[in-house]
Design a protein that fits this description.
Number of domains: 3
Largest sheet: 5 strands, parallel
Helix content: 40-55%
Order of helices and strands: HHHEHEHEHEEHHHHHH
Radius of gyration: 23 Å
CATH topology of the largest domain: Rossmann fold
Length: 323
Amino acid sequence: MIPIALSITMAENERKARVSRKGRLVRRAPRITEQVNPASAGLDTKPTIEILRIINREDWRVAAEVGAVIPQIAQAVDLIVEGLSRGGRLVYLGAGTSGRLGVLDAAECGPTFGTDQVVAVLAGGPAAMFKATEASEDDPGLAVQDLRALKLSARDVLVGISASGRTPYVVGGMRYARRVGAKVVALTCNPRAPIRRLADVSIVPVVGPEVIAGSSRMKAGTAQKLVLNMLSTAAMVRLGRVYSNLMIGVQLRNQKLRQRGLAILMDAAGVSADRAGAALNASEGNLPMALLMLAKGISKEEAARQLEGQHPARVLRAAGLKL
């Protein structure tokens, strides 16, 4: 629900946008992500603690607005699960803060879930992750080039991320995705965003004007990160890469993660640290395989055969592992 003060501000801006004078252009209302937030007026005159309280009060709105669009997030997850099940990919596309958030989520999916099916495309390429190259977001053709290089196909699901919902790079990429037959999801904080017309599913948490007008790295960015967390996590749960609430797809590439893997084996299979370690070594760090070996007393080869092409979590439950 949009707060009353915000609703009044939006209505006033819309009224102004309709007013024109003879011989002059009609002035458009600023996008909601560009509007001035009355709650943070005079921010530069406040003491530090009050600045922080204002930011925190505004941030409290974000989770509620994300909660309001859970039905749309669920629709998007279903599309993603279908695409990944067919061998496709979840492709995040964005520029600036929105694109960097996509890169962040995609980068975490490999070590967390053991998948290479989540990728991100950022306007300006890898260098834009660390240094702003915001001019690249104005080129819709650049997105087409990037997606062609990625070999985007009809099996993939593209999530276009844009706080304003009108970034040319994202618009161009979404149009191209539709042409190749990929499913398309829009993630924006602007209820009147043009990218909604290009999407099979639109996710629009309306978090309102930012504490600093136009700084969509704040509430809009937080909302986008929460939604991306939900999209990737729920899809991986649905695909069996989580057993109960344990990350059985985790890549055990350092000591901390190996200890986490051992703890998962001990908890889920009810075995000692020594038995868990032996199974982990025998399975070469493959947790579903190690769990099945422990649950059924079978060899690595037989566990691999039973898991091949199957939903890992369902196989483990059928083996009697219950948490």
